[in-house]
Amino acid sequence: MSFDEWFALSRQVALVIFFLAFVGILFWAYRPKNKDRFEQEARAIIDDHDP
After folding, report:
1. Which long-range CB contacts under 8 A does 28-34 form with residues at least 24 apart?
2. Which residues contact 18 (CB under 8 A, 6 or more apart)?
3. Predicted confidence (pLDDT) per residue in 1-51, tens digit
4. Nearest Cα to 25, choosing from 37, 17, 13?
5. Is the distance from CB of 28 to CB of 34 less than 8 angstroms?
6. Is the C-alpha dihedral spanning 41, 42, 45, 47 positive or negative?
7. Quick one: how far is CA 20 from the chain centroid?
8. Half-sphere exposure of 15 (CA within 13 A, CB side)
9. Number of CB atoms found within 10 A of residue 22's CB
């Protein structure tokens, strides 16, 4: 394989890896298990009464 072929293959592999990471992060963020935790953290910012 030439350098150009290796370079094209590495770009394709990197695209697949980043896509899978993106889908994994979306899955983690939208899991029902995390909903309560995220809501608590969102309320903590609003409920903080420090001047």
Report:
1. none
2. none
3. 899 999 999 999 999 999 999 999 999 999 999 888 889 988 887 877 665
4. 17
5. yes
6. negative
7. 9
8. 6
9. 10
Side chain identity at residue 42, one-letter code: A
Mark out the alpha helices in 1-51 (DSSP H runs). 3-29, 32-47
Q: What Cα–Cα distance (Å) separates residue 35 from each residue in 21, 27, 44?
A: 20, 12, 14
The model carries a pTM of 0.66
Q: Which amino acid is at 25?
A: I
Helix (H) or strand (E) holding 2: none
Q: What are phi and psi of 13, to 5 degrees?
A: -65, -40
